[in-house]
Amino acid sequence: MRRKIIAGNWKMYKTVAEAVELAGGLKKELGGFEGCDVVICPTFVCLTEVSKVVAGSCVKLGAQNLYWEAEGAFTGEISGAMVKSTGAQYVIIGHSERRQYFGETNETVSKRIKAALKNGLLPIVCVGENLAEREGGKTFDVVKDHVTGSLAGLTKEEMNKIVLAYEPVWAIGTGKTATSAQAQEVHAYIRKVLAGMFDQEVASATRIQYGGSVKPENAAELMGQADIDGALVGGASLKADSFAAIIKNAVK
Description:
TIM Barrel, eight-stranded parallel β-sheet
């Protein structure tokens, strides 16, 4: 039985003080919650302080990105060891906004995954199609390319430490949401691709989140699908009450 995992991607929101307040509010909302894994991913500058707030609670910490080199003259970048030193346990890799605005490719996503694993971090690896690709009937082609390209060269053992997140880009921050049936169809397809790359055991064990305008109102239906194991939540994770409601509804 795959354990649900709900992660909040705070993107480029919240100062350190605001992030600390939000983390504290979420910790209070969830209390002794044990129904699923919960992860929050603030910006780099907030990680250390937020780590102190959530220590000892059910809330785990993640970063939004990392660079694949261990150190060097790479101004503005953050290494896996630096992320790990903040207390973070997870890291989002290959988010659609990173691909769209910052030129990330399957190759660089793959390098980042390997750097994360080397530093004991658990990657949340994002895949998904944009609106033109969806309307052009290319969803499966794009998703297969992202999965096979990003996960190339990984062992079965390494796959046990990876969470995938299917993000239909056209549903991120737009208010549009893939129907539960649409989301389930792609999640099931991702498992088929994983079975071909690795084996059925890996495909069945890998946790796959859905990301794209997840709200308290639609969380239960989405998470009730056979192959959807959680959510990567954007805007709705920026308020403690709404994010907590998503988490609780997801495991009903």
